[in-house]
């Protein structure tokens, strides 16, 4: 983590040049052709914007690693416009497009066409050679635009404050398939004169640019619910159908019940991506992107699907207006996700156990940041001039969810009261972007005037402590209110290994555990018992076979235990793991731990696998492991 340095914001959104308070984009119409040989997309985007203030003479868009070839005025017979780049900074450049004098009044509509191409350096796009796919025959490409990478896919107002519907046509070589974050507008592809295939999609709901998504490859699909289909390479299809067919619809229905808002996106489809995908899931509307690492075979990791489905309300329907307020997306999502899981499993104890695991994750995260990175543990960190991906962590997820659990249990009187608020919150801000200040005002108004709570209780909320305080909030330890039956068994086993070095442990200790309990047991060892003696690690693995687990979450935790205990015999297995899984949740901690033990080994493994990783991973570790 680099030293935290203050930086000047780019514009009204500190990460964007967009002048969205003067001219706001209201629609994108994207036409792109995929060139696997040159590793670029090329085509054009038609941008429609509304003028919000008189005398607005330019439309400002964000772009990065794009080659702009021309800009024309669709309101003036495609007349050429003399665009300029008045600002250029490491986060992005500003594309300034002049607005004709007759269109500068408030209420005018601007329509321009921008011809452009991406570049192999476009951070939003990851290209995979056939050898990096399951089928080994065809290339593969996908986009990942969150947080501020949409600007390297198309010129746009790349701020979550701006939400707009979009249409897209993507042309790919036969027999490949393209899918996007919308609903298909045709039954099957259009065959072009050169034999290439064009796929068209429409997104009817206004979304921020970071939710524009494209995937293309040798994709097949199968239904996994009444409104859900899973896409993937055919080699993964059977496993994907097994993993996701049982719970997906249950999760959607539970989300509708808990939020009080119907699922507004039509279909809920998923695509399972190759292992290089840097996240467990990405909530692209109508087409959630999922990591193939979730295919555990026992449905133990489908909580990620519950999380991404919850984003259909928290994040996609109601969106944080800036990345400083990312916790509004992720904290709300985790909080509701756990209620969904409790409802689907018909167990409040399950919800509480998930919350207990999350709090332990937060403890680990705060510890890993240390004093130097303590500023990253704020719910509202100062990230002006910093790519949000550089400070990505579990803090907005777990500390944000913890804050909502605190409000539920300590302030408003329980889950039913919180649900009453949420069922007014989502309709109030539907299809909008909001700030923490707006969320706070809505919360206080609801519990002052609708569901009246003792004013002394509301006044006792230390908003500054929760939002700008570092570390764990001293006012609330959730372990005092959570049911701990499922966790106590994990703690007892962890204590046996910590205090007795596993004496009396049996090979069937984990047999009665759910996979999540095994993960929690290992987490407790990480937070309470490290380093372990090497003979203790070997004894544990001989009993539990952790190094051979097919569940990536279990093997990842085992490797962390080994590395933090300087158990060098695990290097080869860690290298194999890092060659197959590019998810940041695993890659970041493993490389950090490996680098602390043996920089040379970490650097070699990273160099061998660098081309496999997404740009958000490369940007983080290139400065550390390539020099």
Question: What name is given to the CATH topology of the domain at 318-480?
Answer: Neutral Protease, domain 2
Based on the coordinates given, report the CATH architecture of the domain at 318-480.
Orthogonal Bundle
Low-pLDDT parts are none
Rg, alpha carbons = 25 Å
Portion in helices: 25-40%
Q: Tell me, rounded to a whole number, the average pLDDT.
A: 96
* Number of discrete helical segments: 18
Could you give me the name of the CATH homologous superfamily of the domain at 318-480? Neutral Protease Domain 2
> Quick one: CATH class of the domain at 318-480?
Mainly Alpha
N- and C-termini, Cα separation = 16 Å
Class from helix and strand fractions: alpha+beta
Instruction: Name the beta content range.
Output: 15-25%
Overall number of strands: 23
Q: How is the main sheet built?
A: 9 strands, mixed
Overall body shape: globular
Task: Characterise the protein shown here.
- With 627 residues, the chain is of the alpha+beta class.
- Among the domains are: 318-480, Neutral Protease Domain 2 (Neutral Protease, domain 2, Orthogonal Bundle), CATH 1.10.390; 488-625, Alpha Horseshoe (Serine Threonine Protein Phosphatase 5, Tetratricopeptide repeat).
- It is built from 18 helices and 23 strands.
- Helix 4 (327-344) crosses helix 6.
